[in-house]
Amino acid sequence: MSTKETSLEEIVSLAKRRGFVYPGSEIYGGFAGTFDYGPLGVALKNNVKNLWWKMFVTDREDMYGVDAAILMNPKAWEASGHVSGFNDPMVECKNCKGRFRADHLEDASVCPSCGKKGTLGEARTFNMMFKTKAGATDDESATVYLRPETAGGMFVNFKNIIDSFHPKLPFGMAQIGKAFRNEIAPRDFVFRVREFEQMEVEYFVRPADWEKSFEEWQGTMHAFAEAIGLPKAAVHELEVADGDRAHYSKRTIDFEFDYPFGRKELWGLAYRTDFDLKAHSETSKVDLNYLEDGEKAEDRFTPHVIEPSLGVDRTVLAILASAYTVDELGGEERSYLKLSPSIAPVRVAVFPLLKNKPELVAKAREIYAALKKAGIAAMFDDNGNIGKRYRRQDEIGTPHCVTIDFDTLGENPEHKDTVTLRDRDTGEQERIAISELLPKLGA
Ligand code: ATP
Fold first, then answer.
1. CA 43–ligand 1 middle distance (angstroms)
2. Cα of 311 to ligand 1 centre, how many Å?
3. What confidence score (pLDDT) does residue 426 get?
């Protein structure tokens, strides 16, 4: 079954039932635009973030990681243009009071919620930054914002990285963290939410080298899509047209994904010129120019920036949507998650064939402990018949299951110290030596 045929409802329902993602504040009736990740969702997200950090930071020699504060001096958001310009056009329905993004309406004369004609008011701009107050005073001077993107935290540390590490161009900074946007109409599960996570890079280059770096990051983003198991055919590039780009951007590519609700932006890659460092330099009055060791003072210049920006939540949704598969196994229909082993929350499940045979349980526990010790995400399950246990693991996308049976213990001497290893996608089992387990699982 392809992604397009999978409905969002099926994914939402599986995500809640099996502990990936729950509605935010559910016992209070929920809270629009927020979701809580459960144990399997956390594991999946961590795997995505760790793989991103490896591919975008630690596998390279030119990247510097940071973890900046979410609350920043509000001047940083004035400099970046977010205070004056981070606006979406909003319309309100006079009848049902629903609020919608004017640029998302299919028919501007009909309310998408109550269906009435001619009830939508004029479009008004609406700043998407969440405001709060810092300290005990309540006046305007205490206003601070929850960051709408992680990028700002990197630009304000540009000079710190230069001073501590003296990097040569090109080099980049990377950050993973929460971002907040007061979306007018949060929707489509974790696709458009008010609190989400971003994985961002600001890569600093000499102006003449921007195209080379842009293409390099474009390649890395495709490699990442492949590494997390997104089907190539479902990922598309959209070259953002001149009039639609931010004014400072000379080139932007949206990476789009075929979600169950249509082709939508998954990630972005932008050439932001020297806009950000220049703006922060002007507003902060701190010189954010760059001079390489040994170069003359008059060679100082403002580096240009390439920015790959990836949303964690939209990535998780793309993974779940493309992994959701319905097939027939043993004459029965089954739905399962065809997750790549690189990001599956559980890499392998370990079962004693029977729960009430202490010698089977002891051997299974021993193998389970050894897998955990080797750093493999393993789960122990002795509940219910083996068929049911397989199905439960299939549904959460566990690539392999290991079963310890009487042969393992030597009932059939030929099979002593072997286990069965079951493949999620084919349902087929093979008998392998316990000593082969770790290499088989890629550890
Ligand atoms: P959109 O046009 O869909 O609102 P955007 O172009 O404003 O998105 P960017 O500002 O480029 O998004 O943000 C970078 C990335 O952050 C996006 O590609 C997406 O993965 C993620 N992202 C942005 N807004 C949200 C949101 N409200 N919920 C979840 N992820 C988001």
1. 22
2. 7
3. 96
Determine if ligand 1 sits within 6 Å of the CB of residue 249.
Answer: no
Helix pair angle (312-323, 39-53), 10° resolution: 110
CA of 198 to the centre of ligand 1 (A): 9
pTM beyond 0.85: yes
Q: Burial code of 32-50, b = ≥16 C-beta within 10 A, e = fewer?
A: ebebebeebbebbbebbbe
DSSP class of residue 56 equals: I
Residue carrying the six token digits 């028919």: 107
CB 263 within 8 A of CB 256: yes
Q: Which fold has domain 8-76+133-231+259-321?
A: BirA Bifunctional Protein; domain 2 (3.30.930)
Report the C-alpha gap between 319 and 302 in whole angstroms.
38
Positive or negative, the CA dihedral 319, 322, 324, 330 is negative
Q: How distant is the alpha carbon of residue 403 from its chain centre?
A: 33
Domain ranges of the chain: 8-76+133-231+259-321, 87-127, 346-440
Give pLDDT tens digits for 159-186. 999 999 999 999 999 999 999 999 989 9
Residue nearest to atom 2 of ligand 1 (CA): 265
